[in-house]
Amino acid sequence: MDEILQVNIEKMKHTYEKMYKAYKWSANGLILHFSAMIYTIYDKPFDREEFQRVQSYVKKNVGMFSHYRATEFYSIPTLLLTKYKDPEAAFSTLVEYEQKIKEHGLKGTGVYIGMAANILLNCCESGQAEERIAKSMTLYKQIKAHHPWLTSSEDIPFTVLMTGLSKDVEEIVHEMELYYEKLQEVGFKKSGGLQTLSHILMMGTSDMDIKSKNCKEVYDFFAQHKIKLYTSQYGLLGFFALLGESRIQASKDTLEAYQYLLGQKKYKYIGKQMCMLLAMSLATHQHIGLQKKLIGETVLGLTVEALIAAQQAAVMAAIYAASPS
Fold first, then answer.
1. Which of 27, 49, 53, 287 has a beta carbon 3.0–4.6 Å from 250's, enabling a disulfide?
2. Which of 113, 120, 130, 169 is nearest to 146 (CA)?
């Protein structure tokens, strides 16, 4: 296994053990695994005292039945602490963005509205937030008009993400439809997960045919090794495709990481699907970082922050799909 990947897996295991010891009776185990992975990719140690400080701030600043006090009570402090010097101020902005999203009519499951607000927090200048939210509403309505049975609140984070593209709404919808059709042509079946994948592929600059075929190539690679990818995981295939030639090594690294995790006591019981999500996340994030070093802050035609925000949204969506709470 790649040495850096091996080190990161050990860091993730260590962080998970610390978080599990602190929250094993109160937190969903899958969310703790997600949090440990986020701490790892940002190379930040888990500190229980600061974590509880942010949790306390969250509780004091949202309603009793807020999703931030339930589903996201562990994931949001993780995302804030690993990225922002002032996580409390960042959370206040996050809540403000969420309220604006709701005011513009983008309503649905709270956790996905929160993910959309987090994307704005990561990728948008404060003065542009209102404009992007309004554009997101228009975009979401048009996507839903094309796919009324597939489109749900799960798509909201990705509509917000796509408003960062320098394209108008009609152009985005048209191109997304072409991706959706092209992915079916190469062998994927219609599903909400395939729609998510078409959202992700919109972010790259390479040829549509090439990216679609790259997705199928990676999917087939894992299938050859008896790894089934569920439709909820399709979005992550997009990051392999966006890596271009690096997707081949990223796929091999993912396979090795996945096989290693399955052999670990704390991981073999969380299921193959979750182990695969963690392996895919660590491997693709590492290769995104390698491209950043070679090319700079703009990677594959978009900022690294946008790419990482998209990756986190795809992983969180897949985990929430697999999680009972």
1. 287
2. 169
